Amino acid sequence: MEPAAESASARPPLLQLPQELYSDIIGYLGLNGRANLLRVCKYIYHLTYPYLWRTIDSNIHTLDRRDISIFTLKIKNVSKLAEITQELGADALGFRHIKELRFGSSDFESYSPWVKMGLLDVICDQITSRKMEILKEDDCVIKFLNILKNYSELNIKRPSIIAVQNGLALTFPFHLFALECFSSLKIGLNTTLSRTPPTEELVKDIQVLTKVLAGAISLKHLRVEGNRFLNDSPCPIGQLQPQLSQLQDAITNLKQLNTLELALMLFHPSFFIVPPQNVKRLHLTPIVSVAWWRQFAQCSLPNVGELVIYPHHMSRKYMGEAATWWSITDPEANQADPGDFVFKLHDLSVESLKIFETDCYSYYCPEDFLELVVQRNPGLGERQRQKYLDMQREWKAHPRDFFLYGEKTRWDIDPRTGQPKH
What we know:
The protein is α/β, with parallel strands linked by helices. Helix content is 35%, strand content 10%. The protein has 14 helices and eleven strands. The strands form three sheets. Strands 3, 4, 5, 6, 7, 8 and 9 form a seven-stranded parallel sheet that branches. It has a two-stranded parallel sheet with strand order 1-2. Helix 7 packs parallel to helix 8, helix 9 runs parallel beside helix 10 (241-252) and helix 13 runs antiparallel to helix 14. The chain is elongated, with a radius of gyration of 28 Å. It comes from Orbilia oligospora (Nematode-trapping fungus).
């Protein structure tokens, strides 16, 4: 017993720490720090091993150059892992310790080592603890997501925090997810290059988005980004009204939503989305019409304390024929004329703002918007109030210096016809 005691006392201080402290120390260190620790003391390798395998990241866009894993950055590293797995077997490696996987945009392509060398199948086997049927290569994404869904249904007993990154088309397989568990959703609409998609395509996109939001009842953060390529609205808003009303109902029912972000063309420039009552942070950067502004002015936004608004108008440069916007049957045609760049709201319902941000010099705002915001919202700080009052005065003093889309606005030209106003 004495030699053993002497051996223990002869250990360096690092090895004399209580066992429970090692997890905290290793968890605090980054990957490079853990590697350096192993070089100094190989005795604690078995403690470090689970942390080394905790995250596998092959998405180059998420990497921190100061903290790079051996499994990250280059395709050859994924290939090497696949080769070692084939040689030694998955059970001999640390796959069971993986807690986080980060995939790049090409990882599910047929040429990717994840697919080509069978590494994705190994991951799937580890998740399910049983062998799965091998599907076609072009079905790898669906296969992997379906496995995750089945696993979560069997093993996850509490709601998960799931974020779908912005830019996904509405063809994304949402049916593979438990939408009621989503707490954060960032979704992009159809990003095809079509500037004037058929009305049927718009209707379909509205219906799909409505279905997704109707199921995502636990959302706390929602960002919807419209079509960045859509410069013309293909039909009067009346033709989309039934579907837009259903979409509004789905958004209204998001009772837990705290933050709402809306950007670009959301189906039609006169479609104003009324935020749910509990929304506290509202960020707006859409393409809008005068009718949109009229609806915004009438919405009280009772709990919104932070408003960031940078709306664009549909400029004549992209507007095309007036018929692509309005028809004589459109009930809002007169007040929603996109050419009425200078107009007033006269009143504003929102009174709860504590944080406000906009830029009327570069974006499309009513002539009295800043003044109304300051008057109706006493909760704004004095510095904010003074800033926007000064901006309002300067704007009124030099209206012809107001710029939209980087081009000087000709107030004597009718933007609908290109002819001088009479």
